[in-house]
Fold each of these.
Amino acid sequence: MPRGASCTRPSAPLVTRFAARWSSEELAGHRRAAEALAVIAQEALRWAGSELARGSEVRETTVQRRVMDAFGRAGLVTDHPPIVGFQANAANPHYEPREGADRSLVAGEVLLLDLWAGPARGTVFADQTWMGFAGRNPDAEVRRVWETVRGARDAAVETLRGKWGREAVTGAELDDAARGVIAKAGYGEFFPHRTGHSIDRDLHGSGPHLDNFETADDRELDAGIGFSVEPGVYLPGRFGVRSEINVFLSEAGPEVTPRQPQSELLLV
């Protein structure tokens, strides 16, 4: 190289390779946390429904505390309490319940529970969103929105699986796959955030995001990294639905956590 010349290479692939990769120990801890979170989420939603059915008041912060207690029993830690949103509050993707300003559950309402935790701080957390309905007969639009969001989540994963090992794939492409399902169903304007975020030692990590909405993330998805897949539809003043899973990319292909993602709306 001539004196005075410089060699510039994009730093993003290096960040992905060296900062965003999970160790085998971190993957093991993430898997354990992911399975625990799936159990905790379903138990908390079912508990809320059963308490409501017997006439007790169920507040968003009450469910929040119950999840935090369950984290402690499971030996998990988090950096923030979970998001619990009932009905109209679930339509705000940035909602956080506050004591005294939270909502009480009413029969016929949607419940959103977004929770994240891991075996220790500074390691890879698991991050999930589960959806419930307080009753046995959600109306046609609630079912339609749930099925649309679930389909968008699965479309992103299937697009990744279809390309893995054959061609490069970016987070932007997976965002497009999920967003296309939601747009086709007529809810495109109600999906106002990216499909997923990188996960490493930070919950919103330094690797590629599933994003062609907020930014065009054209970084290639490489083996050794992980991210969330969390499309949503938010109908202002009415209700919102989000479904969130995580994906780890091994050399053999994508691994979804938890092993059994939510497939049906939980009727609680």
Amino acid sequence: MSRRRPTIDTLIRKYGYCGTPATLEAVEDRPALAGNLSAAAHLIHGLRKAGLGFAIVRGTLTREEIEGAHYEYGDLAEYTAKYDPDKLADGWNVVDGEEIFYISKPGAGALGV
């Protein structure tokens, strides 16, 4: 999950990406999360589906790790074949009739496009 931040990783695995209301409730009720607001912020900003009209699918960790954090699992080889990075441009693309937003350098985020 995160790079060498075992405490945050543990909290992510424990609480998962459940959106803002559930995370704020957990901060009020769970001292471990209240004591690590960086993890709480990460859980809020990394939310999966909040009525935004899209889903984030992860395929680089194990199925258990990904689903344990409340994300959808996707097979990396299958998705790489379907969404070939060599054929996609940064920004909006259409693949098999599906509109997707591709980010070649995810570390830069959507604003880096």
